[in-house]
Every structure is written in C-alpha cells, then in structure tokens.
Amino acid sequence: MEDFAELVIVNASAHTMDPAAPDEVTDAVAVKDGRIAALGYNEVSQWIGPATHVIDAAGGAVIPGINDAHLHFVSAAMAAFGYVRLEPAVAPDWSAVVDVVEAAPVGEDGWVRAHGWDEALLGPAQGFLLDARPDTPVVAFDSTGHQLLANREALRRAGIDAATPDIDGGVIARTSHGSLTGLLQDGAMELLSRAMPPVPASTLRPALLALQEHLHSLGITSLTDPGLGPASAGLMDGAGSTAALELLGDLAEANELTLRINVLMLFAGTGGANAHAVEAGLRSGLGAAYLQRGINPEQLRIAGVKIFADGIPRSGTAWMHEPYGKACTHGSLVIQGATDAQRVAELHKILGLINDAGLQAGVHATGDAATAAAVEAIIAAADGPGEHPTSSGNRHYIIHGAFADPGTLHTMASHGIGYSTNPLIRQEAGDIMRQVLGEDRFSRHQPLQSALGAGVQFNLASDAPVTSSDWRRTVVAAVRRATRSQPGDPLDPERITGLQALTAMTVSAAWQDHAEHFKGALVPGMTADLCLLSNPWPTDEEIEKLLDTEVRLTMSGGRIVHQSTS
C-alpha cells in the first residue's frame, strides 16, 4: 500500500460505538488524513509504513472523543481561569468566602468577580457579602449559575435598592423588613450583570485556550455551549456575550480552535423569555455569523436557540405538578406572562418561531410540569403551518428534564425530541434536592433507564461549570446514582451501564449535533476524534476504576491535541 497511515494504535481494546455493531471491540485503529482508515490488526497492519507513528495501547481502551452536549465553555473558562475561585476546597464556609473576597485583587475593570460558592454545602446565603469591600463593587456567582451575591457598591452601581420591584422569573432576596440581602436569583441576576463591564478579550481569550487544553486532557473533543449572545447578562456569569461568540470565530479562523463547538444562541435569559425578544434575535442574522465568515461548521456552528422554561428545584423555581419545598410551592414557568396559561401560550409562540427558522431549540425544563409543557409546545410548533414542520428534523430537545414521567418520555421518543441531562448534578446536589423534594420524588429524578427503554435519544453532559467537566465522574454518577452522603441503591431501576453512559456521551451526543454521519463512533471514513485510555474500560461492578484511568492521547480530526507525558 503506497498510502500509509499517519498513526496506528495497536494492542488496544477499542470500543467502536458503531450503532450498527454496538458491542464491537477491536484491537487496532489506523488514522489517515484525519479519518479512521481501518480497524482490527489484520487490516490495520497493512497501513503501517516507515513514517507511521505506532502507539502500543498496552490493552488500554480506545473510545470516540467525548462530546459534552451541555458545557458552558465561556463561563467555565472564566470560572476556572478568570475569576476569584470560591469552590469548597478554597472556601469551605461562609466565613472563608468573605475572607477570600476581602483579600482578592481588584480586576482591571475595577470589579472583584468571584465564582463557585455552593449553598448546598455552605448553607443559605444571608447577605454575607453585603458589607464586604465597601469601596469596590463585588459580585460572586454561585456554582449552579442561578444565583449571585453582590455587595452594596455593586448593587448601587446597578441601581438596585429596596424599592426595586421583583421581575418575571427572578427573585431579589430581602429580609423580613424588606431590606436587600445582596442575593439575586434567576432572572434578577440580569439586573446586576448588565451593569458590569464586559469581560475584556485580553482576559477571555487565554482563559478559553486554557480550558480547551484542559478539556482535551480529559479526552473531550466536542461540546455544545448552551447560551451565547445578546441576553448573556441573564445567564450564569454573563460572560457569554455576542463578543465572546465572535471571539470563538476568531479562534476558529486562526486555526486555534481544536474543539468542535455547537452554540445555542440566547435571546432571553433565565427569566422573562418572550416571543418579541426571540423574534428580534432571529431577525438579527446572528445565526449565520459563522457561515458568513466561511468557518467550517464541523468545527464551529450555531445550531439553535436556548430557552429557559423554568428554574431549578433548589430555588423553588422549577414548575412541578405537585407542591414541594418548605414554601410548598409548585413553582412556575419563567416565561413572560401573568398566568400559567399565558406563559404556556408564550412558550408555544417562542418555539414556533425557532422551529420555523429551521433552528434547533434547547429548552431548559427541570420540573415535570415544565417538561410536559415544553414537549407539547415543541410538538405544536412542529405540526404548525411553518416551513419546517418536523421536530425530528430540527432535533429540538429538553435540557435537564429531571422529572420527565414515562408518558412524557414516550411522547418525546415518538416525536424525535431529544433529552440532555446531568447525572453529576444529581450526585453533587442530591442531598439538598432530597430534602426539598422528598425521598419518593427524588428517587425518580433523572429517569435514565426509563428514557432508554422509551427509545428517547438522550445524552449525558456536565453542565460545567455547575459541575466538573470530567466526564468520567459523570459516567460513574450515572451508573451508581449516589449522592454526596448516600451510596446509590444497587436496585435503583433508573441506573444504566457504563457503556450505555459512554454511548450517551459519544453517539447520542453526535445525534443532537446533527453530526452522527461524521463523528461519535470509530468507523472507517468517520473523523478521527478519539482518545486512548491507560486501562481497559471497567466493568460496572468496578466502574470507579474509571476515575483513576488516565487519558494518554486525545485526537481531534486526526490531530494530536493531548498526549500524556507519563
């Protein structure tokens, strides 16, 4: 053979994840011109030439590159490399949080920006930062992306005071006397984020490249950033602006972007989404920004629009059929409207607009009522008079869907509606959610096996920086379904296997991206996005061994983007 492979991996335990042969394991992989050229040593040996780089896997697993289908790339980059860090290892209690903030350097924009406090570990936020740094504006975003704490100076600059009215889909926390605590939840976060100066490119660019390197070291080659654009001030830390979206394009044009990234645009934040804002966003032409720059859509692509239908159970903003929490609330949709019926009608309008634009809708819905309403709205949009009358064609999907019931799951499957959920959130925040929801309802949280049995196209994702971007932890969480304080029940009917979890983070995630024809499996002719692990894939009984398994090599399109030195 005159044309030899550039790279060959031998003595491997390669899980091809080929949908046509889902249990196929082979011993060798050849890579040529950025594609999988051959599988199995008998075939692969013919591709080895004098210049071929041959790697001995020593029995280690070779798997497709991991596709994290819900990872806030821009926000996670800033959380890891751009902000003062408040995670438990740094600030294990509220007193330590205050100390870290008091000692933090002021940014070049005059603000102190921090990230990572977790109410589930620290206890309720009760104005701890309100009087910190009286002459410097301070904002501290929590780990969920649904809350922030601000000091008095930050509130003053944002024009927020005791007379500021509550807004749709948001909470301005107050004491029993009506004074501010500095805590803003969901849609109310936008009141402060809009007053903050934008993150400068000189800070954001190196943070993005540093996180890209870190993700490759984990074996991640693809991701979806769910929410960049004009309404970024209403999501997480507000860093995912239109300028950040443009910066990703700059990295792609400079050949510095080695991750494959799909983007959902954000035209309304975590509260008050409405059809007028979405229609204006769609008319802006932002959705074609990368195509107009000639960027390869296999590398960087605007896929659709993210919509927040409700909030999260911990904040009492998830919309549930049955009441929950100390406040005995049902929650509600955070869509604009004065009544449930008005909010549902507005959600139908929004999804109709996205569907008719030929774009994908990713709908954040955690409560069972919100999930059912979002599914109904997607189906109505697909059956409407628009130009794209099939939800399966657009591949709209539910984000989180933590309490989807069996009937809703079967409806999703029959209409081609996808499902992206986050087992590591369940593990990390499970104890507080068990308190809020009760044991019976919590036991049905994230019905993975039910989704699999119903035939739903579902994937597992990190939601970083809400949780760790380490996909190995997500796999273990899906198999064990444990929480911080309690081991998982071996008889839990919603557990899935480790290889089913791997499928959800490769093949199924590629389906969400409309990309199963070129990535997600190790099949000759498909792109060489892969990673080599130091050990074979563990059995479910020993799935924790995955946590100690090193990623020896990561390839993106046949390009080595990570190689272990050990």
Describe the main β-sheet briefly.
8 strands, parallel
CATH hierarchy, class of one domain? Alpha Beta
Q: Please list the strands of the largest sheet in the order they lie side by side.
A: 8-15-16-17-18-19-20-21
Percent of residues in helices:
25-40%
**What is the third-level CATH name, the topology of one domain?**
TIM Barrel
Terminal CA distance: 34 Å
Shape: globular
Secondary structure tally: strands: 24
Unreliably modeled segments: 386-391
CATH architecture of one domain: Alpha-Beta Barrel
Strand content: 15-25%
The number of helical segments is 20
CATH superfamily of one domain: Metal-dependent hydrolases
Mean pLDDT: 93
Radius of gyration, whole Å: 23 Å
- Helical/strand content category: alpha/beta
List keywords for this structure.
globular; TIM Barrel; eight-stranded parallel β-sheet; 566 residues; Diaminopimelate Epimerase, Chain A, domain 1; Urease, subunit C, domain 1; alpha/beta; single chain; six-stranded mixed β-sheet
Question: Topology of this protein?
Answer:
Elements: E1 7-10, E2 13-15, E3 25-26, E4 29-32, E5 35-39, H1 41-44, E6 53-56, E7 61-64, E8 66-68, H2 73-81, E9 84-85, H3 94-103, E10 112-117, H4 119-122, E11 138-142, E12 147-150, H5 152-158, E13 170-174, E14 180-186, H6 189-193, H7 201-217, E15 220-228, H8 242-253, E16 260-265, H9 275-283, H10 289-292, E17 300-308, H11 340-356, E18 360-365, H12 368-382, H13 391-394, E19 397-400, H14 406-414, E20 418-421, H15 423-437, H16 439-443, H17 448-454, E21 458-460, H18 471-480, H19 498-504, H20 507-512, E22 530-533, E23 551-556, E24 559-563
Helix pairs in contact: 2-7, 9-11, 11-12, 15-18
